[in-house]
Amino acid sequence: MNGRLSRRKVFGLGAAGVAAAGAGVIASRSLVEEPVAADGGTAAPFPFYGEHQAGIVTPAQDRLHFVAFDVVTDKRAELVDLLQEWTAAAARLTQGREAGALGAVGGSPEAAPDDTGEALGLPASGLTLTIGFGPSLFDRRFGLAERRPAALADLPKFPGEQLVPEISGGDLCVQACAHDPQVAVHAIRNLTRIGFGKVSVRWSQLGFGRTSSTSRAQVTPRNLMGFKDGTNNMKLEDAALLRDQLWARAEDGAGWMTGGSYLVTRKIRMIVETWDRTSLREQEEIFGRSKGEGAPVGRKNEFDPVDLAAMRPDAHVRLAHPSSHGGAHLLRRGYNYVDGSDGLGRLDAGLFFIAYQRDPRTQFVPVQMGLARADRLNEYIKHVSSGVFACPPGVRDAGDYWGRALFS
């Protein structure tokens, strides 16, 4: 026996513990905290309940399926019901179970299954599901206009960006991260199924090969330009920095967001064909780091102190450094993507940038504005998609649901 229990078998063992708790919340706390993997490795689940949503400081997994939704109902009660149903499903899915109580094969043959079934037999694979609310949700449809946080401001237009409206924005977003792409896709597919008639998919993005480490236990990964990415990223071990730079507080002006965070996404296409013909010296000068070790200019090792004065004024590391923006930090957890070709023999590939912070107005916006105006790397990239979302605090227990404080 390999130490793993299938989703179906584990669900069967725990089915007696499933109880309704509030509208649509069907998974008890004891049920979702039961592990499904005995090997303790990447198959094991992360806890769903907690002060903060999982998928933010959680050690970054290998795969991503990110989706933005438009809400198509104009009834507040239906939106709340959906969030309750999604929360119940997320509590189950993140623990390696099926999305609904009856599962893929346990219901009536004459009815649609409670789960699509493609993850049967697969472990939890470290799945996390993280929800966010976009600025457009706070219009007049649901009576939320007065509750829109000041920090959830529309992003300004940055120099040089070429955004495609159809793959930008959204009322809601869900970030699914896992070590198995099928597990991440399965989760998004089932939330979409549950939301039929209430939400529609606006855009989605698959990602692979995380481009940031969010824990000191993880090595620094590489982006598709071949460079280590996110060397000085905030880490879950940086407790004081996270309190100051990541988590929203009541005094920020939106009490319902206390313990939450603000998410910015950017799809950044890399002109890899041009980059691949650029000399190594030029590549290293553009980034401000060596390509092999990842050491800053003039240093030997990746984590040696950065000497900004030794870099070109338009070097990426220099322009993005917190000291250039009043100490502003971002918690990055982006992913590489390849979306085939553009029909002209060029790869449609790059970085799906994801960053969490306490206030995008004082963190992401000044950093990106500085990069947009002067970064030499802009010759090789273009921003084609953008989104900003308020990610509420975590779900405390089985009687809670995503965003409850917003609708209370």
From TrEMBL:
InterPro entries referenced in this protein's UniProt entry, alphabetically: Dimeric_a/b-barrel, Dyp_perox_C, Dyp_perox_N, Dyp_peroxidase, EfeB/EfeN, TAT_signal
Stored SUPFAM superfamilies: Dimeric alpha+beta barrel (SSF54909)
Cell compartments where the protein resides: Cell envelope
Principal subcellular localization: other
Presence of the UniProt keyword Iron in the record: yes
EC class (word): oxidoreductase
EC number: 1.11.1.-
Required cofactor names: heme b
Domain of life (superkingdom): Bacteria
Reaction equation(s) it catalyzes: heme b + 2 H(+) = protoporphyrin IX + Fe(2+)
UniProt xrefs under Pfam families: Dyp_perox_C, Dyp_perox_N
Domain Dyp-type peroxidase C-terminal: 220-395
Domain Dyp-type peroxidase N-terminal: 53-208
Note accompanying the cofactor annotation: Binds 1 heme b (iron(II)-protoporphyrin IX) group non-covalently per subunit.
UniProt KW keywords: Heme, Iron, Lyase, Metal-binding, Oxidoreductase, Peroxidase, Signal
Function: Involved in the recovery of exogenous heme iron. Extracts iron from heme while preserving the protoporphyrin ring intact.
Record-stated family: Belongs to the DyP-type peroxidase family.
Protein known as: Deferrochelatase
Species, as recorded: Nonomuraea maheshkhaliensis
Gene: efeB_1
